[in-house]
Every structure is written in structure tokens, then in C-alpha cells.
Amino acid sequence: MEERLSFSIALAWILQDSGESEIHWQELQGLVGNYFQLEEYDDVDHFGGDIRTSTFLNRNEGGFYQFAHLSFQEYFCARYLVAPPEELGDLFEDILSEPDITLADLAYRSSATLDFAGDMLGCPINPYYWQQVREFIATNQDRLINAKGADSGRSIDINSVRRMLEMAEGEAAAFELSDMAGAYKNIYRQLRSAVSEELKNSHEPEPWLLKLNALLDTGRTSVPEPAEMNDDT
């Protein structure tokens, strides 16, 4: 089961990396042999048949295989980002054209992959979402400093949030996400806690508070067009 999972993750990333949605059965067969380090034809054929029938793959009339639905491919990619099997690290260094792909690039190519990863972590991780959060904090800093965290009763540590937001920059490598998960969760917890407490104590919540609450509820954001990605304003 673990071998099938790790192979599904590897295949999903190979397709993601190449920008293709399918792979020919002969290429898939070769990948199975290389991945499982098989030399005998019968072994490759046996493992290949098992993979083709047990990894959510469909075959078309041309002999090409693809995941039964794109969401399977996106899920397996997200699964690696959140909890990568150790044996895949060195492999990806060798087979992926961009082993250091950033979160920003991945968000542009497949925002659903980051949405899946965010669901697994329990907090949003799309860098364009956190860009909105950073912009909100920059314009509402004084209000946030005075907000009280529901779990601690103390003012939100805006400097700590700023430092953690730096870790959520789009230039961060996607494959380092599992190392940054704690920072994302901490940011989200602090902001959610402060907003919940403020809303509970406000008979008529101010517009800034309602806006931040809506932003936290959404947890996702649309990916900008390429021109916007390079806009520093």
C-alpha cells in the first residue's frame, strides 16, 4: 500500500512538472521498472499491471494513462507537500525539471494542489492569500495590536505575525512546506483567535473587523494573472 502511494505521488509530480495530463503505457512501464529498481521483464510487467489497476488510473484507446480525475493528481501532489515520503526526496532531485519550484509558481499552475494541502494542514497556504493578509495587516496594524486573543486574553503579537508571514512569502520552495506548516498554523490561529474575541465583544463590529473575518473564513484567493505576479505595488 505504501509503495503504491509513493509511486502515485511520484507519478502525479512527474505529470505536474511536465505540464502533461497523461503518460504512455510504455513510458509508465519504464518508470515502474526504474522506480522499483526492477530488472526482469516479468517483474516489471507484474508491478506495472498492479500499478495500472490500483492507482486511480484510466487508459484511453491510444494507450495513454492518466489519473481518473485531475483532483487525484492534485491530491497526490498535495500529499507530498504536507507529509513527503523520505524515499522521494532524492528521486525528485533527479527527475523533476524544477525540484525547487516555489509556492507562488505552484499556486499559479495548480491552485487546487495548494487548496488540498491547506485542507490537510487545517489552514490556508496559498501565497496569494497570505499576500492579502499582509496587505490587510499593513493598513490595520494599530487595530490588530489592540485586539485580544480569545485563547490568551492578550494582545496579538503583531511582530511575531510579521515574522511568520515572511515565511509565507511566495519565494519559499514548495517542497519546504512541511517545515513551514507550524508557522502557517500559528499565524492563522493568532488572527482567528483575535477576530473571534473581538466579534464576541462587539455589538456593532467595525468594517475592518468584518473584512478580516471574511478573509479568514474564505481561506483561499484567486491566482493573479502573470502581469500581477510581478507587480510589487
Q: List the domain count as a whole number.
A: 2
The average pLDDT is 77
- Tally of DSSP helical segments: 13
Q: Can you write the helix and strand succession as a string?
A: HEHHEEHHHHHHHHHH
- Unreliable stretches, pLDDT < 50, 5 or more residues? 150-154, 221-233
Major sheet, described briefly? 3 strands, antiparallel
Q: What is the overall shape? A: elongated
Q: Could you give the count of β-strands?
A: 3
Summing up helix and strand content along with how strands pair, one would put the structural category as: mainly alpha
Could you give the distance between the termini?
48 Å
Strand order of the largest sheet: 1-3-2
Residues in helix, %: 55-70%
User: Strand fraction band?
Assistant: under 5%
Radius of gyration, in angstroms, nearest whole number: 21 Å
Oligomeric composition of the shown chains: single chain
Walkthrough of the structure:
With 233 residues, this protein is mainly alpha-helical. The chain folds into two domains: 2-99; 104-229, no CATH class. The chain is built from 13 helices and three strands; from the N terminus they run H-E-H-H-E-E-H-H-H-H-H-H-H-H-H-H. It has helices spanning 2-18, 25-35, 41-54, 70-82, 88-95, 103-109, 111-121, 127-139, 141-146, 158-167, 177-201, 207-218, 226-229; strands at 23-24, 57-59, 64-67. The protein has a three-stranded antiparallel sheet. Strand 2 and strand 3 form a beta hairpin. The radius of gyration is 21 Å and the shape is elongated.
